[in-house]
Amino acid sequence: MLFFLGQIFPYIAIIVFLTGMTWRVLIWLKAPVPFQLTLFPAPQTFAGRVRVIGWEILSFKSLWRGDRTLWLWAWLMHGSLVLIIGGHIVGIYTLTRQFTLIGLSPAASSAWSAGFGIAAGIICFLSLMVLFYRRTAITELKRLSDPVDYFDLLLLLAIVISGMHMRLTSLNIDLPAIRFYLAGILTLHPIPIPRTWIFVSHFTLVNILLLYFPFSKLVHAAGFVVNRAMVTEKPPIYPTPASRVGEARFKQGGRIE
Amino acid sequence: MYVAKPAELEAIGLTYSSESAQTNRALKIMSELRTSMRSLMVMLETCVKCGNCAQQCHSYLGTEDYNNFPAARAELMRRIYKKHFTWSGRIFGSFVGAEEFDEETLGKWLTYFYQCNECRRCARFCPFGIDTAEITIMARHILSELGILPRFMQGIALNMQKTGNNMGIPQPATLDSAQFMEDEMREETGLDIKIPIDKPNSDILYIPSSADFFTNVDTMLGVAKMFHVLGVNWTIPSTVLEAANFGLLFNLQVMRTHNLRLKQAAKDLGAKLVVQGECGHGWRAAKMYTEGCNGAFPFELVHVLEYCAAHLDRLRFKRLPWRVTLHDPCNYSRAGGIVEQPRKIIRACVEELVEMTPNREDNFCCGGGSGILMDEMMDIRLKLGRKKVEQIQAVGDIDYLAIPCSICKAQIPAVMKHYGLEKFEMGGVMDLVGKAMVFDQ
Question: How large is the average pLDDT for residues B310-331?
Fold first, then answer.
């Protein structure tokens, strides 16, 4: 079992995640956009488009203009998640020495790393709980929600809780061993997974998330970009410039039904 | 809502699918649409059900009906889509919110996709920019392909087919009406201001809303006066006496056909510039859909408000002593990029322009959008218009409410009358141009 969870399942998860997401996005991109669905005010240039979409990703501006409470918790949830993922990458790679790069001592760096990790973990936990509560507390939202909407939140909560458990209890988590194990996975020379049940659970839950990701509403991460790109497209110019006459839009676009 | 009968459908080239075949046929069309329209796929697959759209939708706020909450409305299609076009839906069914298509759902489609005004306000507030209007457009298209269509839409489609305009005005009546308006302007100004119909070799093709020939005459007068002062060579095509394109509101094939009339008329009359009159969705259909419908469009295309705003320095006005507020038609602001032009024109024509809140791209729809103008739906229309009424009440005393879109012009006065708010005039922005214009004798 540990052999499967440690040396096979991670590969299945990552392959399904990468191919699944690529497949989903390619299917979308294969379908034509026959009509410009520009939502005004729209940027006029490519750089403007990147700026508008980028700012929306960073700020969650549309939510801010709508429901400020939702904005706060949604932003905190995603923000802390980014911090956590980033923290995992640099923290494990440098064995929590990442802050020595800005001149801190190794011990101080570890303390900072733990501090940021704990803060981000608590914020992520709280915001997931609030988002869960919100789903049950707002009448129309409760009616709109399907079991899977709660499942997604519970899966993320389980990952956060198992991760925080390693942080906050005095369990002996052998970070160098974990780093060694993960390096083995990444260099395609898998070695047995460290026999710490909490780490195995946390790691397996993450793999389940990756496996599940392309088939769930979590694809909104990719849908965001594809959809935003669609609604920020430049409106057509008339008379149609000669350079555009041969475009695919004209060949496929008129095809209705 | 009255639904068109099979024989009436045939008259506009649609066929009625027998009830037992409807859901299967709907799935077949949905399957074709999803591979030919990226929007349908991405928008159905990206929603996370955060519920941010609920409080932004005047339809939900007005009717307080769960199915009018944009995400729930989209869900009417999304649940079926999941069942038939996604792996998770096929395997996990109702756990992931997938549902079989049945007659009851089809009935809900007809009800609720015709209570969406396609105003796109939800898209403005959706973190992903998911546009429920897009889903409504697809759903209505599918419904019409099954032969399920409001009788109101069928009537308009028939008129469009026969005369090229929604009101079914034949060419002789158009000429009569133009003559009548010319006489009226002669009486008012003493000038010989023309409304040329089907004049060959015209530089500008003006596409009015057909209602401007009967109910919203002042809009037409304003436009004619402007063209007269600017001294341009313009004409109105009797074959496309209609800026509106109801095809966008129920069947994309019908939209395409009407759009082709525009291109044909411009070619036939030798115009270089096409100017679209005061019609909201018609502007969206012309500006955003022409290319996709019928390929390259070799003419310049502008809206009359853009045209007027650009030539404002060549027009002279005596400012009317009015306090005016502007309702931004959804298809100008969110879907058509016309926001500042009407403001610039109004400021030139009257003493005070006061903004309602919210305004511009965040404005609320009048409640008649997407052609929900059926008399039998008056109860619903009043609910859909409630938010607009509150907005207008909040600006205080006004003398004139500018509603530069034919659908708004049909909806808002009816709603205002119901709520007892009739102390001011209502009409287009070009109406103001006509009223405030000063002529050099």
Answer: 96
Nearest chain A residue to B50 by CA distance is A141
What strand order describes the sheet that includes B273-276? B234-235, B204-207, B273-276, B300-303
Which residue, of B310, B325, B357, is where some domain finishes?
B310
- What are the b/e assignments for B158-171, b being 16+ CB within 10 Å? ebbeebbbbbbbee
For chain B, positions 141-200, list CB contacts with chain A under 8 A: 141, 145
Give B345-396 pLDDT, tens digit per residue. Answer: 999 999 999 999 999 999 999 999 999 999 999 999 999 999 999 999 999 9
B409 touches A: beta carbon within 8 Å? no
The Cα–Cα gap between B201 and B382 comes to 46
B422 is a domain residue: yes
Residue of chain B with shortest Cα separation from A251: B295
Supply the pTM of this predicted model: 0.94
Does B384 lie in the same domain as B258?
A: no
Evaluate whether residue B12 is within a structural domain. no
Answer whether residue B2 is part of any domain.
no
Say yes or no for a CB contact (<8 Å) between B123 and A240: no
Q: Is the pLDDT of residue B323 over 50?
A: yes
Do B229 and B288 fall within a single domain? yes
Residue at which a domain ends, from B146, B178, B213: B146
Task: State which residue of chain A sits closest to B251, comparing Cα positions.
Answer: A256
Please tell me the distance from the alpha carbon of residue B5 to that of residue B18, in angstroms, as a whole number: 12
Q: Map out the domains of chain A as residue ranges.
A: 1-28+174-229
Rounded percentage of chain B residues whose pLDDT exceeds 70: 100
DSSP string, B221-251: HHHHHHHHHHT--EEB-GGG--S--THHHH-
CATH code, domain carrying B396: 3.40.50
- Orientation of helix A175-186 relative to helix A68-93, angle to 10°: 90
CA distances from B388 to A117, B59, B235, B284, B383 (A): 49, 11, 35, 21, 10
Question: What integer is the mean pLDDT of B154-182?
Answer: 94
B393 interfacial to chain A (CB closer than 8 Å): no
Reading chain A (257 residues) residue by residue, the pLDDT tens digits are 889 999 999 999 999 999 999 999 999 999 999 899 999 999 999 999 999 999 999 999 999 999 999 999 999 999 999 999 999 999 999 988 999 989 899 999 999 999 999 999 999 999 999 999 999 999 999 999 999 999 999 999 999 999 999 988 867 788 999 999 999 999 999 999 999 999 999 999 999 999 999 999 999 999 999 999 999 999 999 998 887 776 666 554 444 43
Residue A62 sits at the chain B interface (C-beta within 8 Å): yes
Return the residue of B nearest to A234 by Cα.
B288
Beta bridge partners of A238: none
Contact with chain A for residue B134, Cβ under 8 A: yes
Number of structural domains found in chain B: 3
- Chain A residues touching B51 at Cβ < 8 A: 67, 70, 138, 140-141, 144
- For an interface test with A, which of B274, B291, B339 has the most A Cβ atoms less than 10 Å from its Cβ? B291
**CA proximity to B422, closest of B401, B391, B404:** B401
Are the beta carbons of A41 and A256 closer than 8 angstroms? no
* Contact between residue A61 and residue A75 where contact means Cβ atoms under 8 Å apart: no
Predicted pLDDT of residue A255: 47
Question: In A, which residues are within 8 Å of B134 by CB distance?
Answer: 37
Say whether both B257 and B363 belong to one domain.
Answer: no
A-contacting residues in B 259-288 (Cβ below 8 Å) = 274, 287-288
Is the CB of residue B207 less than 8 Å away from at least one CB of chain A?
no
Chain A residues 168-207 with CB within 8 Å of chain B:
none
Q: What does the pLDDT look like over B222-258, one tens digit per residue?
A: 999 999 999 999 999 999 999 999 999 999 999 999 9
pLDDT score of A253: 47
Show the domain range for B283: 153-310
CB–CB of B361 and A215 under 8 A? no
Domain match, B305 and B322 both? no
